Amino acid sequence: MTDVAGQVRAKTITWEDPLETARLGAAMSGLEYMRAIADGRIPPAPIAAHFGMRWERVEPGEVVAVAEPDESLYNPIGMVHGGVAATMLDSVIGCAVHTTLPAGVGYASVELKVSYLRAIHAGRGEIRATGRVVKEGSRIAFAEGEIRDVDGKLLATASGTCVITR
């Protein structure tokens, strides 16, 4: 497909079998699993490839992911689609919760509230998403997240709830 200027734009996305990755993670604590992904010992989730997202820091109850949005993530009005921010925030919130879980225990997002504060544009450098656990529970965990640009400006915030699955 060509754009209005006749230029061809393309993006190739590759990933590894996510079910095999999940099987590897089931035998590790959430913290060990997330650190193995961050260190490149285990492949990341396929969604990370779509956004060019990588894990910068993984600590108990807190994670940081970074990505540099490109124009392939734009919506029809010329800015990065809000779903990119929502996906990154859902990811860091869930993964922060995951770092607190023992081996064989998982989670699923049950609620996410996102507030968009500034538009995100391609070509302005990396964005950094931080997720942190607010309250751990045996069945439900609460966490919050934020996205900042390279200058530290707050772009979006979120709060989320995850159900713990055993």
Reading off the top of the CATH hierarchy, the class is best stated as: Alpha Beta
- The outline comes out as globular
What count of domains describes the coordinates? 1
Looking at CATH, the homologous superfamily is: Hotdog Thioesterase
Distance between the termini: 46 Å
- How many beta-strand runs? 6
Mean pLDDT: 95
Radius of gyration: 16 Å
| CATH fold label | Thiol Ester Dehydrase, Chain A
SSE pattern: HHHEEHEEEE
Largest sheet: 6 strands, antiparallel
**Per CATH, which architecture?**
Roll
Q: What structural class results from the helix and strand content?
A: alpha+beta
**Contiguous runs where pLDDT drops below 50 for at least 5 residues:** none
Beta-strand content: 25-35%
> Order of strands across the widest beta sheet?
1-2-4-5-6-3
Overall helicity:
10-25%
**Number of continuous helical runs:** 4
Domain Thioesterase: 78-155
InterPro entries: ACOT13, HotDog_dom_sf, PAAI_dom, Thioestr_dom
Pfam family, one: 4HBT
GO molecular function: fatty acyl-CoA hydrolase activity
Please provide a brief summary of the model.
With 166 residues, the chain is an alpha+beta fold. Helices cover 25% and strands 32% of the residues.
Descriptive keywords:
166 residues, alpha+beta, Thiol Ester Dehydrase, Chain A, six-stranded antiparallel sheet, 25% helix
